[in-house]
Each structure stands twice: as C-alpha cells, then as structure tokens.
Amino acid sequence: MNDIQLFNQIILLDKLEIALTEANNEVVSLRSMSVEAIESFLIAVSALKTIAVSIVHDERLNFSISEGSAQCELEASEEVLASIYKELDNAIKGNSTDKQVAGNLRSIQDQIKRESYKYRFLYKRNQQPPINLQVRLAESKRISLKRSKNKYNYKLKVIRGFLNQIGGNKPNYHFDYGSGQSITIECTIEQAIEVNRYLYKEIESLVLCKEWSIEDKKDEYFHKAIVSPNIARSLKLYLDLYYKEQDIISKLTRTYDFVDKMFAESEEGKLTVLYLLLGFNDLKFHLSEIKTALVISKPFRNDNLMENARRSLLETYNSKIEKV
C-alpha cells in the first residue's frame, strides 16, 4: 500500500470529478480517443487544475486520471475542496471577481456545452449527496466576472514561466507557455541585465500585476524580483491569502505572520524580508503596506543584502506621505 492509499484510508477526502463520457455520440475510452476528444478533455482538466492551484496551496491537492470514460479526479480535504467549490459557486452565480477562476471555469463550461459531447462534473462530498456542476454549468449563462467599481487593481504575484526572450527598445522579458500563450513583463534596463542571466531557463518572478476587471483586456505585469526556488511556493501562498483578506489590518497581520513563520521554519527568513522590500516599493500601495515592510526590515537596515532596497523603499514611503 502506497502513502496516498494509506492517507485516503485515514482521512476521507472529498473529490471534484470531471469526465468526458461521450464525444460525437461515441462512448469515450481513455485507451482510445480521437484528437478532438482528447483536446477537449485536456482543456477541461487543465482549467480545473489552474483554478484549484490558484485558490489553494498545490501540495494539498492530489490529481489522478483514470478509466471510466476519460476521468480526472481532484482529491483534497473537506476544508480545501469546500474553499474551491465556494469560488466555483461564486463564478457560476456571476459573483466572482477572480479573473483566473472565472476565465478557466468558462473554458470548462465551453466544453460541457459542446454539441455531441457529454461531460460529468461532480463535487463529491463524504456522507452528503454530490453536487452536479455539469448541470449547473450547462444551464447557466456564459460565465463572466462580477462588475467592479474599479477597472483594475494592483496585486503582487509570483508567476512561473520559461524565459525565452528579453525585449529591445522598451525593456521587458517574456514567459513562453507554448501553444501561442505568453506573458510580457515590463522591467527597467538594470533589471533586464539581471534577468538576462536566466535566459532559456524556468524561473519564478515576483511581479506587480495590473489586474483588469475588463475580461477582454490583458493583465499587465511589472518586474520586482527573481524569486529563489526555495521560497517561491511559500511566497505565492502568502500572497494568495493576503489578497483574499478584505481589510488592511487583516492583510498586515498576514504579512507579520508570514515573516515570523519563515524565520521559524526556514533558512530563507532574510530573503523573505528582501522580497517584501522590493515588492511593496511602489506608490500604488497603501501607506500602511509600505510602512509594514519598513518596520519588519528595521533590524536589517545595515545588512548588506537589504540596505539599498530598504533605503529605496524609505524614499517611496516619504514620497507617499507627501501625497497623502
């Protein structure tokens, strides 16, 4: 018995199950699928994976693909699956403000609504009746974002990609995801020179994202730092939780807790503080967000690693005060 099987016996896991059962009026088998059918199935599975990972820490998720038509199951604890379902439910009702969730759920909906295709999409809960998401998506209008008063918001994000190009006249670099998908990240000339060391490598970047609430408008990205692989996952989780908080006090508490945790459990505590100094160094942030990074970094104000970054953030803080 492997570790996953043993774990499943000890803790009953909830599941999100998506399966392609028929394509062009023919029963689907994982062992024999047409090009069109497998493309549809992979779009749906990839979209489900992207939604789940964007909501929770990916170490708490377990995916499996099996026969029973072409079937993918996402297993996780009741708490984790409930948080994912809540976001799916919001998107179906038209109440989601998360562009990634709404966009990827729309991709699943597009596959479910295809003529001559039949999907099964269930939220299976232990000791409770399953919820049929396939029926809800088939009967719902096109998934769209909830209208926001703001056309855009600024958020720090950790994004991963294959660095395949560094731009020319206007400094930027590009992450290539294949199939014509790419992201352009704006940067300074000095940052471009630093980033060039990672050309043709898979890297993680801390970026400031101008996230548009207008669905057809692409988000814009601005470089902050190349993130150490040892800390990228923890930093991403922190930022995901940070932007789920509704008020500034809760957000700042998240920051303090994150730094305390990194110093207690990792050797990357100082590097964590450096990323906060670099990340929040922008007039677009709330004065309290900038001040928190300064307070946390105060014990390291003469540290060679952080001295310049902290000085620069202090200049931004003083400039922000003048504008208040």
Overall, the morphology is: elongated
Tally of strands: 11
Q: Structural class from helices and strands?
A: alpha+beta
Task: Give the low-confidence spans.
Answer: 5-10
Helix content: 40-55%
Mean pLDDT: 90
How far apart are the termini? 62 Å
List keywords for this structure.
324 residues; elongated; five-stranded mixed beta barrel; alpha+beta; six-stranded antiparallel β-sheet
Please sum up the structure shown.
The chain has eleven helices and eleven strands.
List the helices and strands and how they pair.
Layout: H1 3-10, E1 14-23, E2 26-27, H2 35-55, E3 62-66, E4 70-76, H3 78-92, H4 99-112, E5 117-124, E6 131-132, H5 133-139, E7 152-166, E8 172-178, E9 181-186, H6 189-195, E10 202-212, E11 220-226, H7 229-242, H8 248-265, H9 269-279, H10 287-297, H11 307-323
Helix pairs in contact: 2-4, 7-8, 8-9, 8-10, 9-10, 10-11
Characterization of the model:
This protein is an alpha+beta fold. The protein contains 11 helices and 11 strands. Helix 2 packs antiparallel against helix 4, helix 9 runs antiparallel to helix 10 and helix 10 packs antiparallel against helix 11 (307-323). It is elongated.
